[in-house]
Amino acid sequence: MTIQWADRAPTSGQPFEEGPRTSCSRSWTGISVEVVDLHGRAGWHLEDLRSQQPRLTAVLEEIGGRVEMRLAPPCPAPARNSASQRPDGHLTFIPAGTPVWECAGRFRYIRRVVIDFDIPALTARFDCGLEFPSHFVPRLMFSDTRVQALAGLLADACASPHLDSRSYGDSLALAIVYNLFRPALAARQKRGGLAPAQLRRVTARMAESLFDPTSIEDLADMTGLSASYFSRAFKASTGMAPHRWYLTERVRRAQRALLETNDSLAEVALASGFADQSHFTRAFRTITGASPGAWRKSREA
Question: Which residues belong to any copy of the HTH araC/xylS-type domain (predicted)?
Fold first, then answer.
């Protein structure tokens, strides 16, 4: 929506004069960025900053006035040169399609950067297991010094003419994503479990290595956790230690073979990854409470 300017508060049907502005835009892995510089006139500024993707707006500079972010256009217009004691600059995050209005009274200069997030692309990019929320909620005019600083650096990278700034921009983009969305991940890990994406990747690797188990250290590396923390988190998520998970999956494979084939117990044991029938019997009894032969017979009855 076009920026609106007037010498007094906007009214319905009134023509508005657009003030001077410059902008530049650029895309990096999973994000698109636009930096806008607004040079004020003696009027009101009102702009709808909604996006078709989740969006972070960072107000980087405010000179001669204050910028406010609202979910509905103000009526009447915002007060001139608000006496708010908050520090310059703030962040606003909105879900896709959510109206959010940037408004200000008389001011000299505003510099902002808007960052749109391509969640599927970021999910693929964050192979380390960052789990994005299933539903986003608006966060208006909040402070995060780390994200604010990263947004400022990303704005500078956006305006840079150097072609070699892509890797630098990608790094900044990923740092912003991590710092913006990590509270949800941290809260989940604080409860002791793995994030769903982490658990899916780990159990997929374990299923592929059923007969030659992946080490705890290698599984932990997939999640960025220490081996000891990973073991605790895995148990909190699945109810069993990694070793027990492997054992249970082998027994489940053996159960299918016992029901679907006429193979001997020794043949089922070897096909399910057990060293011998004795090992198979002990493991099967541990998991099911019955011997393989007794379990098969009870299902055939």
Answer: 200-298
